[in-house]
Amino acid sequence: MSFAPALTLADGGQFPAVGLGFWKMPKPDTPGIVREAIRAGYRHLDCACDYGNEPQVGEGLAAAVRDGLCRREDLWVTSKLWNTYHEPRHVRAACERSLRDLRLDHLDLYLVHFPIALAFVPFDVRYPPEWLHDPKAARPAMQPIKVPYADTWGAMEELQRAGLVKRIGVCNLNISALRDVLSYAAIRPAVHQIELHPYLTQPRMLRYCAQERIAVTAFSPLGSPSYESIGMARPDENVLRDPVVTALAARHRRTPAQIVLRWGVQRGCAVIPKTQTPSRLAENLALFDFALTADEMAAIDRLDRHRRFNDPGHFGEKAFNTFMPIFD
Fold first, then answer.
1. Fold entry, domain 6-320
2. Tens-digit pLDDT profile for residues 33-52
3. Is the terminal CB of the chain with fewer CB neighbours within 10 Å at N or C?
């Protein structure tokens, strides 16, 4: 069994550099994948209300702890506040629902999933509520509401003060929005989770977060594969087939995925690849017995296409009849 090294956060906490992401993880498979991942050495699990499988993650976690595969204190579990719960009066209930589903008494990290506030959907109407306010409407759409991010962040701070979460953080902000949060935050974001891969390298964001001592988690660290099946990426946008990456994989006798993930962690980020395949669970952890040279890192850096796959400004209008830009 191998374990990922940890990044040290501003508060001294230890944040495992490789985690397992649960977006698009099929519910029936999830409990077994959680157990297998923990058996393989994963201690960082990245969840969210919107992924719709937190009860199944919780089932797997409870079984793993019960069977002695790990202790709760060995694990880092992240979840995320969904867009429909940005009004401060809904933030605690949303967090408590994730805790109940995950069978936990606290989260190691709770993130604001998107800088998008949508109209509240009660739990008993639809959970997770997803993006559409009323899927049965003649023209279903998102329903934005006016909630200052500062108000949502204040309610997130209350969760940390109450002990429901150990740390709070943000996702999908541009630098200007992150700078704004830092101007009023009584509790600063511990982590910023962003899309980051060789076709979207975000060097300025990484530099700014390092300057402000905010850890970065790279979601979709392998790029396009998770998006191809839902029409948000083309096959020719797969970085794992890029000649630079495949040549480096041959040189190091590694897989292209290992090269790309090693590039991510070598930049100082945590990475959260998603896989359902046991052999790839082990493969994605096996990143720390080799290193890329400075020239090899620079060669991957030069692959940057500024290609963002997960952009509400693109998919919001196409999938949900709502133009919702959050990036330039």
1. TIM Barrel (3.20.20)
2. 999 999 999 999 999 999 99
3. C
